[in-house]
């Protein structure tokens, strides 16, 4: 069995940033395990631009953004293995992996960073009625076919779900010569970023139908038509509102699910809201020395935030390796309430936090002219007005360590949204 | 001239082909679709029924109990996943005990071993997730679960190894009697006409059409649709037994069962439909499955659904299997109306029809019959040492293609290169489970396409989900919008 100080599971943007940060914080023995044939993760198929505005103050494509981190990791001589699947992670941080040349092998790590990313919600998970022909793709699968293999999955397209990948693919398929007829979204608001609605749908005259869903798929061999209908407040289809679109392709962009099968095997506690691990301020899970970052933790809108979060995970993993576990220390719970669906992290140990801590969260509905309000127990600490908040855009609150240390009796930080 | 032409490569046709291949015989199986196991055999409850349900004296009752008893040997010899998890038929407090007692009596008449009633207390110990209203159940220890794909494919592969020819993509267009033999015409130019001394009709929902080409004793088969939901393996242990409902106010009820691969299956509905290709799910059907399942099992984690599907039962008006030589057409044998418990009965139907053919054609046993068949090696079922030996011999076993089900490239290569090898993504999926997991092939489908393209080899534009027009890609980037494309 090999021994490695820090094993990072996944060589996408989260894994790369975590590795770089751990190295910069003094850890030399690092191994990134990547299942694909190259580093970079899903960014390699995201050839559109818009990445890196926060991190590099310029607009990069996905592969360009990844390339900068890959170059940095290589410059720092961080070890990585490709084409290798992690099969199991033990709560003792023993990792079982497999590839063609080494077969099954074990690595004992001192700390582990989970950076496996997420997967797309499938047609099956959405329980869409109808036939099960070819021509139904998740938006990401279509993206891979078009951007990496160079093949078009269809000519006439209906898209269900207004997640960012679906919006990006609406534009992409249009540019490649397909006709995108409509984007239907179950919710009364879009699941994607506002800028993607404008740049990917509005600019190409692709209609977005909110509060609509697919109620039938026709075609026994290949998709022949898709029927969409309006839904009521209960999200059930309203009879009589059906519209039938002939098409050969249905793309699904209905949400991303953190891939935590390995985490579950390690005994990591998962949140029912995010489907990601429950973590503290150090992005450490309930299993000591196992950290999580990126889309395996919670689904992000922007890779820049992933990089920032992963940098913290890498730094904290380094500190864990150097200093061992934290002694029993005061833990404060973060209580998401009143429209705030969850927060990452969900607990804070003030002794262990940096001078500031960015708490990220999503709201469960669209809020116009609401404020994000933070309470320390009953005491209102901050209030920030937001013209619009929507589930498709991640929000944040920044907590100061000094404020927490000043209040030794503090039990709960409440984050909520409040109307005028 | 074939001695026997079997129409249909579902579990019944394949089981007959395999049992027939024990004898010196020239036989073929004619199948419309691009693979075996594409009709009723692929979309059902995957249950090996104990046999208490059918009316005593019927073929359904006899063959079910017989087929059930044969399943251990078949599963062992043909390397098919099978488990006797036991069945429970539960009654709720609104239902009286007489229903269960009647069922028990019927089961005993049918010769089902080990049936007994279990009290609520005993039940709760066995199955803590039974609905609160459940008060009693009948326990059938011989009930089991099987992989219907593997059972069908195992029969078909073993039949091929023993000399039976399978003609896939070969849709029967006409069937005529030519006095001392039959003429089958098909839509496949490679096998446009097939002559056979005898014909076996195992055509599933189309068995009435096949029969009615030749026989004056007309059959009428109704496609009875059943819709199902399949849940992730994280929900697979929600119940351990197969939970049936005693028929009640809401009809026959639905079952909740683990699958032999560790998922949880919920369904089916029962709706008679006109369209024999109508394997679409419906909003109403899926709602029914949801509502009815709650009558017997509580806290079903329905958010863990990974797919839903519908299958068609071949229901004949007589309400029993129609098996045997047609009275007015010597040499024409029916295996028609094979609805539930068809899968459970298939081993017995195979032997029954093969015996009839043996007697009809005076066949003699083959000296070199291969009784066993090896399935695809599943590295995940091997020890680490064994896996490493396998990977050393063939590194493809170290390369995971389907990350949800942890299926290696080695297994996919085996699925492609074995007898009746996979030629489509569904073919690969049913043989290996690649694409059958929680992401439903989102990640592995482009990779499996690459492997099919390289290994068969086949054109990328011909690679399909399930043959015919079910292809995946329509052109290269930028080419499809052009006027000439």
Describe the structure.
The complex is a heterodimer of chains A (420) and B (485). Chain A is an alpha/beta fold. Chain A contains nine helices and 28 strands. Chain A has helices at 13-24, 62-75, 123-126, 139-149, 164-175, 194-201, 261-265, 303-323, 401-405, and strands at residues 2-9, 30-33, 49-51, 60-61, 79-81, 85-89, 94-99, 103-114, 118-120, 136-138, 151-152, 156-160, 179-185, 208-210, 212-218, 225-230, 243-246, 249-252, 256-258, 290-292, 332-336, 340-344, 347-348, 356-363, 367-376, 379-389, 395-400, 412-418. In chain A, the strands form seven sheets. In chain A, strands 1, 2, 5, 6, 7, 8 and 20 form a seven-stranded mixed sheet that branches. In chain A, strands 10-18-12-13-14 form a five-stranded parallel sheet. In chain A, strands 23-21-28-25-26 form a five-stranded mixed sheet, with no helix packed on it. Chain A starts with a strand and ends with a strand. Chain B has 485 residues and is an alpha+beta fold. The interface between A and B is large, with 54 and 56 residues.
Q: Helix and strand layout, with pairings?
A:
The complex is a heterodimer of chains A (420) and B (485).
Chain A: E1 2-9, H1 13-24, E2 30-33, E3 49-51, E4 60-61, H2 62-75, E5 79-81, E6 85-89, E7 94-99, E8 103-114, E9 118-120, H3 123-126, E10 136-138, H4 139-149, E11 151-152, E12 156-160, H5 164-175, E13 179-185, H6 194-201, E14 208-210, E15 212-218, E16 225-230, E17 243-246, E18 249-252, E19 256-258, H7 261-265, E20 290-292, H8 303-323, E21 332-336, E22 340-344, E23 347-348, E24 356-363, E25 367-376, E26 379-389, E27 395-400, H9 401-405, E28 412-418
Parallel strand pairs in A: 1-2, 1-8, 2-5, 8-20, 10-18, 12-13, 12-18, 13-14, 21-28
Antiparallel strand pairs in A: 3-4, 6-7, 7-8, 9-19, 15-16, 16-17, 21-23, 22-24, 24-27, 25-26, 25-28
Helix pairs in contact in A: 1-2, 1-8, 4-5, 5-6
Chain B: E1 2-7, H1 11-20, E2 27-30, E3 47-48, H2 59-78, E4 82-83, E5 87-92, H3 97-110, E6 116-119, H4 120-126, E7 134-140, E8 144-146, H5 148-161, E9 165-167, E10 172-177, E11 182-186, E12 193-201, H6 207-214, E13 221-231, E14 242-245, E15 255-258, E16 264-267, E17 271-273, H7 283-293, E18 305-316, E19 322-325, E20 332-336, H8 342-361, H9 384-393, E21 400-402, E22 407-408, H10 409-417, H11 425-432, H12 445-455, E23 475-476
Parallel strand pairs in B: 1-2, 1-12, 2-9, 5-14, 12-20
Antiparallel strand pairs in B: 3-8, 4-8, 5-7, 6-7, 10-11, 11-12, 13-16, 13-17, 13-18, 15-16, 19-20, 21-22
Helix pairs in contact in B: 1-5, 1-8, 2-8, 10-11, 10-12
